[in-house]
Amino acid sequence: MGLTDLETRTQVGIIGAGPAGLVLAHLLRARGIDCVVLERQTRSHVEARIRAGVLEHGTVDLLTSLGLGDRLHRERMVHHGIELLFEREAHRIPLTELAGREITIYGQHEVVKDLIAAWDGPLHFSVSSVALSALTSTPTVSYVDADGVAQTLHCDVIAGCDGFHGVSRAAIPPGVLTVHQRDYPHAWLGILAEAPPSSEELIYAHSSRGFALHSMRSPTVTRLYLQVRPDEDLAEWPDERIWSELRARLDRSDPAWSLADGPILERSVAAMRSFVVSPMQYGRLFLAGDAAHIVPPTGAKGLNLAVADVKVLADALTAWYASGDATGLDAYSEACLRRVWRVQHFSWWMTSMLHPTSDNDPFDRALQLSQLRYVTSSRAAATSLAENYVGFPFP
Ligand code: APR
Ligand code: PHB
């Protein structure tokens, strides 16, 4: 059967140009496997989307091995510890000393910019009406391109990298997937501010007013978060209220410490949830990243988990194309879900330890403080936190 002008063929059709889709594209390209990436949003939208900013050692190594490390290594901030702040005292967890690996601070959207800039293969932005079919036989993606022209993409395999709200997971027939989900009674209000970081490292703060996080992007830009209600209205948070709440929650007994403020460049509220589907595969559709799982941001794992998934997928596809060996593809879901559940547990645990419940239940609060004292006083407990935080080696 010949293809018409509006039909194309590729080996791997990738839905979504977030970290999962773009890293997969680069991995496949490096192994001589063809792919086409389809993205619903514009390039500028994807490049401006502010998300988390902690990269595990494994993520940095993988990006570097793909030739994507130049700006990353120039501009990143390398951190060797984090602070846990509670009862107005800061306690440092020396990550590198305990777990042997450092973390990198570099915004997710900067990673996305680097991935797009270095990509010279097919990547179509602003596509609409994306629909997946024939997933167990001859996978096909139909879509309308940016010029409004209906297109058909025939693939050997489809990678569903289109995030939590994408179409890939929804294309799987009812009854195939088991969904595991937990919604939390809180959300994070995040701001990006033109202000120098007030600490050299990240500060995770537990206070009776709620959780707060001090993070950063550069020597002049701070990233800060406040625990709020899931239905919080941003309109109720003028700049001064945000700063005074941050000051109150990040306050410590050390009189020399203060929080630097400055113009707020961006603000948003993000709900917190834990979500996993199992399996992460149906026929020749493989889900990766947020399309298959969401973690609450307290462990800073979302991007790293997406990268770990596509590494497993790229390795499996490489073996399959090289020798027809489908063992890796058959084991894809199981291999990914092992890491996914470890990270789910860690993210849930960090979230539970650091976020007071809305009624400030005294029993919950006593457990949280006990756990915080334990992880900051026992080397064994701190090491467990550290090895999860820096991330286990990639598969
Ligand atoms: N067709 C094409 N693209 C789509 C569609 C669709 N129907 N639906 C969604 N997309 C695109 C989104 O616009 C987005 O660019 O898929 C992309 C998914 O990217 P992310 O949401 O960033 O998800 P992922 O690549 O899995 O990245 C992992 O880690 O830090 C966390 O949630 C954070 O985005 C982060 C994630
Ligand atoms: C961030 O810098 O945006 C960030 C850091 C740590 C987290 C979550 C987000 O746990």
Summary of the model, kept short:
By secondary structure, the protein is α/β, with parallel strands linked by helices. The protein is built from 12 helices and 21 strands.
Molecular structure report:
InterPro entries: FAD-bd, FAD/NAD-bd_sf, RIFMO-like. Keywords: FAD, Flavoprotein, Monooxygenase, Oxidoreductase. This protein is 35% helix and 27% strand. By secondary structure, it is α/β, with parallel strands linked by helices. It has 2 domains: 6-53 and 107-177 and 279-354, FAD/NAD(P)-binding domain (3-Layer(bba) Sandwich), CATH 3.50.50.60; 185-271, D-Amino Acid Oxidase, subunit A, domain 2 (D-Amino Acid Oxidase, Chain A, domain 2). The strands form 4 sheets. The protein has an 8-stranded mixed β-sheet. The protein has a 6-stranded mixed β-sheet with strand order 9-3-2-13-20-19, covered by helices on one side. A hairpin with a 5-residue loop joins strand 11 (140-144) and strand 12 (150-154). The two termini are 40 Å apart. Adenosine-5-diphosphoribose binds at residues 15-21, 38-41, 46, 51-52, 108, 127, 130, 161-163, 166-167, 289-290, 302-303, 306.
